[in-house]
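re: ur question from earlier - yeah i can do the single chain one, its not a big deal. heres the input i used so u can compare w yours
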Amino acid sequence: MRVCGIDPGIAIVGYGFVDVRGNQLSAVDYGSIQTEAGLAVPTRLKQVYDGTKYLLQKYRPDVVAIEKLFFNRNVTTAFTVGQARGVMMLACEEEGIEITEYTPLQVKMSAVGYGKATKRQVQEMVKLLLNLTQIPKPDDVADALAIAICEAHSGEALRKLKGRGVKK
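and the output i got, formated as tokens:
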């Protein structure tokens, strides 16, 4: 099974594609879609949409896991990131790819085993679990891989339970 993890943003969208074979995880590709700050929001959203669509068509994941948004301070940023998240979800829907969503707490629990793990702890576990030589940069990329790992651990288990008639 191939999983795509997405850390949504308007300036930087982190993405990571991970193949899951039993308990084995391997990174297929990871990186970021970046937009220029001075551009109009609709232009940036189009770039995020086009980049997402391209990656989905290139790597054909079975499922896309995207982080749920939680913002306490900057409402303007929350709206813009929400719009970017929406165009990414639209691209997934158009490609017929299942979408799952996880909170930052769920991602940390899955990757590290502790919901209040630091960013550095998550990055180190991503490196370890995917057998990478270094921590992916920028941080959004490591976060996207952690989201993919969360789906590999949590989502697959939920699908198996649902297949047995167990409700979430």
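The CA atoms of residues 43 and 153 lie 35 Å apart. not sure if urs matches, ping me
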